[in-house]
Amino acid sequence: MSQLNTKHLLGIKDLTAEEINLIFETADGFKDVLNRPIKKVPSLRDVTVANVFFENSTRTRLSFELAEKRLSADVINFSSSSSSVKKGETLLDTVNNILSMKVDMIVMRHSSPGAPHFLAKHIDANIINAGDGTHEHPTQALLDSFSIREKLGDVAGRKVVIVGDILHSRVALSNIFALQKLGAEVMVCGPATLLPKHISSLGVKVELDIRKALEWCDVANILRIQLERQKMRYFPSLREYSQHYGVNKQLLDTLNKEIVIMHPGPINRGVEITSDVADSDHSIILQQVENGVAVRMAVLYLLAGKKAG
Amino acid sequence: MQKRLLLDGKLLQITISRLCQHLIENHDDFANTVILGLQPRGIYLAERIKKTLEAELKKTIDLGYLDTTFHRDDFRRREDPLKPNQTKVPFIIEGKNVIVVDDVLYTGRSVRAALDAMTTFGRPAKVELLVLIDRMYSRDIPVEANYIGKKVNTLESQKVKVELKEQGSEKDNIWLINIPE
Questions:
Q1: B96 Cα to chain A: minimum distance (Å)
Q2: Residues with Cβ < 8 Å from A95, sequence gap 6 or more?
Q3: Tell me, what CATH number does A196's domain have?
Q4: Domain residue limits at A216
Q5: With contacts defined as CB-CB under 8 Å, which chain A residues touch B82?
Q6: For residue A230, what pLDDT is reported?
Q7: B82 part of contact set with chain A, CB < 8 Å
Q8: Enclosing domain of residue B100
Q9: Domain for residue A7, yes or no?
Q10: Chain A CB contacts of B75 below 8 Å
Q11: A271 φ, ψ to 5°?
Q12: How many Å apart are CA A29 and CA B67, to the nearest integer?
């Protein structure tokens, strides 16, 4: 197999294990490129990409923009806070206006789940979902699994626990799909109020006790508490959350094994994870960011690589 | 499927020895010269040349692998994007004499991509091209080899197939194959 069966990357749910592995093998090549003196290849020089962000982002947006530039694509950026969306323009109108300027690919983040799926039905360009509400964040899951594969050799057979706000997290859902497709065992852990009611129907283990979860796993992916998405109180206070679910050095020291610590960022230091854990040797948080560029290059390359109409 | 043998194992060995003698003639003791094998198939020939040169010169010769996938000019113009192979250039090529090695020279487009890929590692003093088989009169761009194992006049409908033991073949053989329409 040397190409994806899909024109868009809307979610991990639509990908096969074979396609995910193709993305990883291609990303290996790009990781190599990123370590060269000249970190740029000409593959996408006749492609224009629009980064359309209806929601705030630092990492994902910079990472996509860098990936696009390393592939020699032309890049335009759009953020809703400084645009005509404020004047009442619809999503479809906004995107069609961008596309009429001869844009080939759209990287979109939107607060509504399904927004990229809606666009895919109405427009011709390739769409990459950079996060849609509480639904999916496929490139984050790809770079997370890619980082596990890099650190531990393989994802299959590994035990991964996703800790924290599973209810509001698109990273959690995409990660569950990706890890399961690649053959890992997945557990979610967090306060009962932040676990979706029927989450176990996805085939994941559910654990309320952080210590038991950490004892079980090889890798802990610790999510950010997303206060901006929480319209009601799901736990009494941040201090109480950090006492019950925060990962700190004392807790890790009591385990008689080493586990890999991941975090999709941005970190709330001292809430879900303490600084001494985030900055420790077990943490691959910065490698995740580094791998993000290579993985996104691979996705852009594979989607753009289909013969131009 | 009709096929004609271009080189067998014995002739291949003689050809490689000849190419190596020619290289030594021009590059002396390889003090400032490195070899770059082109992925995916040029690397096996490059390995053999390295081995032959090392036996002759009694010193280690620098060899790297160069993958040109991301520098090709047919991206978005072929049905499937190509999968990349490993690039390994464990030495500095800035100011060096570089011998680019590939198995077959056909349209010249891979070599163009290789020259482009190589410049991302630095500016070599001089670049030369060595190929085992030169398919004459079929160039799309003005690229010629400095060292040639065998020149062959071929049709567009034909294919050169290189079978080497390193690639899993039982014997070393290089064939010219007629592809049925």
A1: 16
A2: A52, A106, A108, A119, A123
A3: 3.40.50.1370
A4: 138-285
A5: 2
A6: 65
A7: yes
A8: 12-22+32-72+84-153
A9: no
A10: 43-44, 305
A11: -100, -80
A12: 9
Sign, Cα dihedral of B14, B17, B19, B21: negative
Residue A45 counted as domain residue: yes
In B78-125 the beta strands, taken as DSSP E runs, fall at: 97-105
pLDDT reading at A295 higher than 80: yes
* Residue in B75, B83, B119 closest to A43 by CB: B75
- Give me A143's structure tokens: 């770079």
Q: Is the ipTM of this complex over 0.90?
A: no
Residues A127 and A152 in one domain: no
CA B4 to chain centre: 21
Is B120 in contact with A40 (CB distance < 8 Å)?
yes
Task: Assess if residue B129 is contained within a domain.
Answer: yes
A231 pLDDT more than 90: no
What is the pLDDT tens value at each position of chain B, 181 positions in all? 789 999 999 999 999 999 999 999 999 999 999 999 999 999 999 999 999 999 999 999 999 999 999 998 888 787 777 788 888 888 889 999 999 999 999 999 999 999 999 988 889 999 999 999 999 999 999 999 999 999 999 999 999 999 999 988 899 999 999 887 7
| Same domain assignment for residues A281 and A293 | no
Number of domains in chain A: 2
Question: Do residues A149 and A125 both lie within one domain?
Answer: no
Asked if A76 and A126 sit in the same domain, the reply is yes
Q: What gap in Å lies between CA B12 and CA B31, rounded to an integer? A: 27
Q: What is the CATH number of the domain that holds B145?
A: 3.40.50.2020
Q: How confident is the model at residue A309 (pLDDT cuts 50, 70, 90)?
A: very low
Split into its structural domains, chain B has a count of 1
Exposure string of B20-33, with b = 16+ CB inside 10 Å and e = fewer, is beebeeebeebeeb
Rounded to whole angstroms, how far apart are CA atoms A251 and A261?
13
Same domain, A268 and A205: yes
State how far the Cα of A292 lies from the Cα of A290, in Å rounded to an integer: 5
A227 and A293 in one domain? no
Instruction: Considering only the beta carbons, identify the residue of B70, B81, B117 that sits closest to A3.
Output: B81
* pLDDT tens digit sequence for A21-68: 999 999 999 999 998 888 999 999 989 999 999 988 888 999 999 999
Q: Give SS3 for B137.
A: coil
